[in-house]
Amino acid sequence: MNSFNAIDPAKNLATTFIVIFQVLAALLICLSIYLIYLSYLNLMTDWKVSVEFSFFHFTPEENEKFLKMLILSLPGVGALITFFVLGYLKKVIQKE
Q1: pLDDT single digits (tens) 13-33
Q2: What is the greatest pairwise CA distance in the chain?
Q3: 43-49 — which CB contacts under 8 Å span 24+ positions?
Q4: How buried is residue 13: exposed, middle or buried, by Cβ count under 10 Å (0-12/13-18/19+)?
Q5: How distant, in Å, are the alpha carbons of 32, 42, 74 from that of 10?
Q6: Which residues pair with 57 in a beta bridge?
Q7: Cβ partners under 8 Å of residue 32, min gap 6
Q8: Cα separation of 48 and 60, whole Å?
Q9: Residue 85: is its pLDDT beyond 90?
Q10: What digits encode the pLDDT tens for the residues 41-81?
Q11: What SS3 string covers the chain?
């Protein structure tokens, strides 16, 4: 017996947007890894890191490479979390 199978266009549109944003998050992760690698090789010489506190001025010359890598890793970590959250949302949307 033939049954009516309704395809929800909003469900397909949401899945498409989620896939697009997952690709953008993956590209941001790759860009962040590349910038961390450049910072590791000390190729970012024009960028000086200095942290000013209210009590003293802290300029870490010996740990500057580590701080640059730490700062550049934050967008990558955020994109990684976003990638997995979007994957979970895609799975929830496809179940409905």
Answers
A1: 999 999 999 999 999 999 999
A2: 79
A3: 44/68
A4: exposed
A5: 33, 48, 33
A6: 52
A7: 72, 73, 75, 76, 79
A8: 9
A9: yes
A10: 888 777 666 555 555 665 555 567 778 888 889 999 999 99
A11: CCCCCCCCHHHHHHHHHHHHHHHHHHHHHHHHHHHHHHHHCCCCCCCCCCEECCCCEECCCCCHHHHHHHHHHHHHHHHHHHHHHHHHHHHHHHHC
- Give me the pLDDT at residue 69, please: 85
Q: Which amino acid is at 51?
A: V
- Chain-centroid distance of CA 59 in Å reads 28
Residue 5 has pLDDT above 60, yes or no: no
Q: What token pair was written down for 58?
A: 């802290």
Give the side-chain half-sphere CA count within 13 A for 44.
18
